Amino acid sequence: MSGTITAIRVQRKNPRRASLYLDGRFLMGLSIEVVQDLGLRRGQLLDDAEMEALRRAEAQRRAYQDALRLLSYRPRSCAEVRIYLAGQEYDQAQVEATVARLQELGLLDDRAFARTWVENRRALRPRGRQALSAELRQKGVAAEVIAEVLDESRSGEDEVGVALELARARARALQGLPRPVFFRRLQGFLARRGFPHEVIREVVDRAWVEAHGDTGDGEDLPDAFA
Predict the structure, then answer these.
(1) Nearest-angstrom CA–CA distance, 161 and 89
(2) Distance (Å, rounded) from C-alpha 30 to C-alpha 54?
(3) Where are the chain's structural domains?
(4) What is the Cα–Cα distance from 76 to 121, expressed in whole angstroms?
(5) 93-124 pLDDT, tens digit each
(6) By C-alpha distance, which of 55, 127, 117 is closest to 80?
(7) CB burial class (10 A; 0-12, 13-18, 19+) of residue 168?
(8) Handedness of CA 125, 223, 216, 173 (dihedral sign)
(9) CB neighbours of 14 closer than 8 A, spacing ≥ 6?
(10) Average pLDDT of span 14-41
(11) DSSP code per residue over the chain
(12) Is the predicted pLDDT of residue 144 greater than 80, yes or no?
């Protein structure tokens, strides 16, 4: 559909958008940015190719705004933004252009996202390296980025400390249980939070000693990892 622009009117309810009229008839709503970027003006003749470019420019602008709204709730990975926009029926070119623009502006960064995720988990819901890695993989973060962020954020000794803190809190709820049951339940608790076997072994032993004041030498210890 080709024609001549007869009016471009700022919308009363949303001054950031304009109504475009072609040959005296309303055609579509546009963001003010698209009007300015394309240099639209009254009296301009638009052919079919220019109309298609106009529609794509408006769709691209909507994709960007939709992505900004998504990011306003919490940080996201690039993969999460791609999945969301695809679900909103934007085509691949529009999705990739939006992701690229957000990256250029520093609003989308998988390393920053992974660091924030790890810091929040550490503060609110501590997890072991394995669990953190699995969570970030589910968010679409690349394996090399995950490894880099986890290496810089926590040493092996730190992981023992985090596991021990969790084990001490959990041990209070396990007070009075027989030693084999105490070990089995605490091992399972820490395993579900992604701590490696060697850390769990050390931490469960220490938690028992701290809670009961003995090592229980000579008893057969339950070992969920045998």
Answers:
(1) 46
(2) 9
(3) 1-46, 59-107, 110-153, 156-212
(4) 15
(5) 999 999 999 999 999 999 999 999 998 887 77
(6) 117
(7) middle
(8) positive
(9) none
(10) 92
(11) --EEEEEEEE-SS-TTEEEEEETTEEEEEEEHHHHHHHT--TT-EE-HHHHHHHHHHHHHHHHHHHHHHHHHHS---HHHHHHHHHHTT--HHHHHHHHHHHHHTTS--HHHHHHHHHHHHHHHS---HHHHHHHHHHTT--HHHHHHHHHHH--HHHHHHHHHHHHHHHHHHTTTS-HHHHHHHHHHHHHHTT--HHHHHHHHHHHHHHHHS---TTSPPP-TT-
(12) yes
Tell me whether the CATH fold assigned to 59-107 matches the one assigned to 110-153: yes
Nearest to 190 by CA among 225, 154, 215, 151: 225
Q: Which residues contact 194 (CB under 8 A, 6 or more apart)?
A: 127, 128, 129, 130, 131, 132, 133, 134
Fold of 59-107: Arc Repressor Mutant, subunit A (1.10.10)
Question: What's the CATH architecture for 110-153?
Answer: Orthogonal Bundle (1.10)
d(C-alpha 85, C-alpha 186), whole Å: 42
pTM check: above 0.85: no
